[in-house]
Structures are given as structure tokens and as C-alpha cells.
Design a protein that fits this description.
With 503 residues, the chain is of the alpha/beta class. Helix content is 23%, strand content 16%. The two termini are 17 Å apart. InterPro entries: Glyco_transf_61_cat, Glycosyltransferase_61.
Length: 503
């Protein structure tokens, strides 16, 4: 038995809408922090899809979607004395080059520097634009204190403005509301080495400058706006790359130390605190990205044709996750395949979770129920130990990246024409990681919305109209529901999960 979404030939999210921030679960990893999201103050201007008098800031105060809510009043780590005094996490090692003044870059000090930028942010068929990324080579001098990257570039060519500058906010999501809260980095063309500041540290490896502002402190966005783009940008360098992190958060760096160590052999540089001038032979300002958890071949942003299978192997390797395939039914006498059900403390709870777990147990699964936590390695190990991952649509499903190849993902899709979001955020990524995927669409009788709104309400009569109003309408209505699945309808999907383990 397979239910299916309403027919849809285009995204159910308007192409002009900013990316909806995936909610921070209590298991999103730090949703109770006060420094996880750095956003500009609301200006009081009208927000699409909201009543005239309602601003995004007011909406955030009423919402439990921490992609926006708490973040509007949060302060960055650079302004937080406690965070500033926190010891710097050790990711790998210091570069061994001697730290001494130097007037030349590591490569072609007297030659012509070069900058090329990928500014093609539009992706036909996907509504969210990508940020600009610039790749530099030659004599490159990075002054974090001045928030400036100097490129020795006598000709002045390479896409600079009339003043010889290129300004970027190196956060890997082009969100016009978020970007003003991201540190701006200026790339400055200089006519000669003498016109650039002298080096205090010479590096022989390329640099990558990127931000962890925005929606970080949410596991979906930690992956889609930082780790997947960082993998796409730097993994081919095999660890020989220096990371410089703007909007630096010590707790964030500590949380993802195993992944950062896998990508770079050197301790990351806090771009917000460093007083030196770091010289490099090459570098990236910003990160390349594709479609959230979807990677496709592209001559500019993915010339090495990385796939989500590659990313899945990368995270499993970084966290030393042992299982690369799920259990095979019948392989061991008495073996029961393991199902992990991710619970939620906020919205979109599975109300009858205990009944679902009991039904799965009766069908032969060894069931564990857990809420994702801030300890990424520990929860990743728990996911990797499972054969089947089951969850209601939300950031917790991002944990599918830790499943063994050919594991099974079951997504419960809430009411409200969520087919495009379900497929593009989690369904297609699961298939791209060579996971076996099932999705169950909640009916009108299975959503808590039926107890809050009459059947004549737009959420039942025309839910697509709410999508057209923008993220605020979705966050305030559709994303606030809980679900209680009809076990008569749902039990066949549990059986399908068992069947897929035998394929």
C-alpha cells in the first residue's frame, strides 16, 4: 500500500520566497543556546504573507521555529564575553611554517594575481538562489582585523568595482534577510606587493574563508549551509587547506571538530579575533553549494562531480562510524532489524509514537526511540547502528547522513501539500545517498489541525495558497501541527520497510 502526494509539477514554495529555516529540534544540537543564530534587527517593514502590522520580528516571538525566532535577539560570539573566554577548540595542528614578517606571497610574488567569481546564483527549477563565491590565486594576503583580503593584481582585472574592490558576505545561503548579519569581507586589488600589508604568517596551502552565522545551531542548516558546501569546496585538497571562520562560534567549532579535522589538517583561524596578516598562494572566499542535501555535477560549483554518497562516506569516516550496510534479514538466526524513531519535543510530534513503536516491534523490529542531541558523534553512532530511520518531517531527518548505505528512511509527511519540501529536503537526498526511501502522507483525520481549524479553512480547502503567502504562513499554521497516524494505514509502510531490507 502506497499513498502519494497530490500531483505537483512545480515547487510548492514560491520562487521569490526566502528559504524557510528548518526548525531547531531540541535534538537539533544546541537549540537552547543564546548565540546560535545571528540575524539583523527587523526594520518594521511589511513582510509578505503577514498582516500589515506584523513584522518578521513579531512573528519570531510567537514561533517555535528557531531558524528565525530566538535568533532575532541573539548576540554573536564576538560580543559574548563568556564565549570569548572559552578555550579555542583544537581541531588539528598549527602550520609548521615560521611565523615571521614577509613581503611576498607563497606563489608568484611578482606575478599577476587572479580572481574568478561564480555569481550565477539562479538555479532553474529550484527556488533558492546561491551566494557569490570567489576563487583567488597568486599573492594573497588576508588581514582578518581589516576584514580584507588583498590580491596583488597589477592589471586590476578580475571583476573588481571602480575602486578596485569586491565585497562578499561568505555565508553559504543567499538569504537577503540573513546576509546583513554576516561579516562582510572585502577583496581588494592592489597594484604591487609593496602596496599590500606585510605578511606575519606564511602559509603554503590554500585558504577558505567562510561564515557560520545565519541559521547555524540547527542540524539541517549546519549541514546545508556549512558542512556540505565546505565539503564541496575543500575536500579535494585532502586536508591541505587552512580554514578561516567568520562569525566564529567556539561551541560550533567544538561541536563539529571531527568533521573540520577531516577536511583540514590545521586549526581553524578565528577571523573575528586574529590580528595577523596571513599569506596564501590561493584561496576561496565563500563556499560553493548546490541544492541543500542534493549534489549534482556542475562545471563551476561541482566540477569533480561529488555526490551525496561521497558526503555520506565523508561523515562516516570523520566520525569513525563502522557500519556501511544495514542488516540483511535472515542472515543471522533470530536477528531483528533495528529501527530508530526520532522523537520531537516541539511541533510536528508523533502523538501516538508509543503505538507506532509497539506496531513496529510486533512486526519484528528492534525499536529505539530517541531525540537527537547536541553530542553529534554520539547520536551519529546511534543512527549508524540502525537499519531503518523513521521520523516526522523536520531537521531530525538530516541524520540520515549517518545511516549505512542501503539503510531505509521513512518520512511521515504532515498535512498541507508538503510534497515538494518533503522530496527536496529529505526524499531525494535519501535516494542520492543510496538509501531506500518511503514516505507516508498524513490525511485530514491524522493531523491536529482538524482540532484547531474548521474544514472550511484554507489549510484544508487550499493549502497551496498558504505556501504562496510565504514562510510565515507556513510556520504559523502548517508547521505547527502534530500528527497521529492511522495504524491501519501506516502498518503496511512498516512492512514495506522490512521488504526493502531484503532487496
Amino acid at each position: 500500500m502506497q499513498n502519494s502526494p497530490p500531483a505537483s509539477t512545480k515547487p510548492s514554495v514560491p520562487e521569490t520566497e526566502a528559504i524557510p529555516p528548518q526548525e531547531t529540534l531540541a535534538g537539533g544540537g544546541g537549540g537552547d543556546r543564546g548565540d546560535g543564530v545571528d540575524l539583523p534587527e527587523a526594520t518594521g517593514s511589511e513582510e509578505p504573507g503577514l498582516p500589515d502590522a506584523v513584522t518578521r520580528k513579531e512573528m519570531a516571538a510567537e514561533s517555535d521555529e528557531p531558524g528565525l525566532p530566538e535568533g532575532l535577539s541573539r548576540k554573536g560570539d564576538g560580543e559574548n564575553a563568556a564565549a570569548a573566554s572559552e578555550p579555542k577548540p583544537s581541531v588539528a595542528k598549527e602550520e609548521k611554517e615560521e611565523q615571521k614578517p614577509n613581503n611576498g606571497g607563497a606563489a608568484a610574488a611578482s606575478g599577476e594575481g587572479k580572481m574568478t567569481c561564480d555569481e550565477n546564483g539562479v538555479d532553474e527549477g529550484f527556488p533558492y538562489a546561491r551566494p557569490t563565491v570567489c576563487e583567488l590565486s597568486g599573492d594573497i594576503r588576508v588581514s582578518p582585523k581589516q576584514k580584507t583580503v588583498y590580491l596583488v593584481n597589477p592589471s586590476g582585472a578580475g571583476g573588481f568595482d571602480e575602486s578596485g574592490e569586491k565585497r562578499l558576505r561568505p555565508y553559504a545561503r543567499k538569504d537577503d534577510f540573513l546576509l546583513p548579519g554576516v561579516v562582510e569581507v572585502t577583496v581588494k586589488s592592489t597594484p604591487s606587493a609593496a602596496a599590500a600589508p606585510s605578511c606575519t604568517k606564511q602559509h603554503t596551502v590554500p585558504a577558505v574563508v567562510f561564515s557560520v552565522a545565519g541559521y547555524t545551531d540547527n542540524f539541517f542548516h549546519d549541514m546545508t549551509d556549512a558542512m556540505v558546501p565546505l565539503f564541496l569546496t575543500a575536500s579535494h585538497l585532502k586536508g591541505e587547506v587552512q580554514l578561516l571562520i567568520t562569525d566564529y562560534k567556539p561551541w560550533w567549532v567544538q561541536k563539529y571538530t571531527p568533521l573540520l579535522r577531516k577536511l583540514s589538517n590545521y586549526d581553524p583561524i578565528n577571523f573575528d579575533k586574529d590580528d595577523g596578516v596571513h599569506c596564501f598562494p590561493a584561496g576561496f572566499i565563500g563556499l560553493y553549494r548546490d541544492r541543500d542535501l542534493i549534489l549534482s555535477p556542475n562545471p563551476t560549483r561541482n566540477p569533480r562531480n561529488y555526490t551525496m554518497v561521497d558526503f555520506n562516506r565523508f561523515v562516516r569516516g570523520a566520525l569513525a562510524l563502522p557500519r556501511d550496510r544495514p542488516a540483511v534479514l535472515g542472515e543471522e538466526p533470530g536477528m531483528r532489524p533495528r529501527m530508530l524513531i526520532i522523537s520531537r519535543a516541539g511541533t510536528r510530534k508523533l502523538i501516538n509514537l508509543d503505538e507506532v513503536a509497539k506496531a513496529a516491534d510486533e512486526l519484528g523490529f528492534n525499536v529505539t526511540v530517541a531525540e537527537a542531541g547536541a553530542d553529534v558523534p554520539a547520536f551519529a553512532a546511534q543512527v549508524n547502528a540502525a537499519d531503518v530511520l523513521l521520523a516526522v518531517h523536520g531537521a531530525g531527518l538530516t541524520n540520515q547522513i549517518f545511516l549505512p548505505t542501503n539503510g531505509v528512511v521513512v518520512q511521515i509527511v504532515p498535512w498541507g501539500k508538503m510534497d515538494w519540501m518533503a522530496t527536496n529536503f529529505y526524499g531525494q537526498p535519501a535516494k542520492d545517498m543510496k538509501l531506500r526511501y518511503l514516505e507516508y502522507y498524513v490525511g485530514e483525520e491524522e493531523t491536529s489541525l482538524k482540532d484547531k481549524y474548521p474544514r472550511e479553512h484554507t489549510v484544508f480547502k487550499d493549502p497551496e495558497a498558504l505556501h504562496k503567502q510565504g514562510w510565515q504562513a507556513l510556520a504559523g499554521i502548517i508547521m505547527k501541527q502534530d500528527v497521529s497516524v492511522n495504524l491501519t494505514r501506516f502498518r503496511p509502510f512498516l512492512l514495506q520497510a522490512l521488504d526493502k531490507l531484503q532487496e
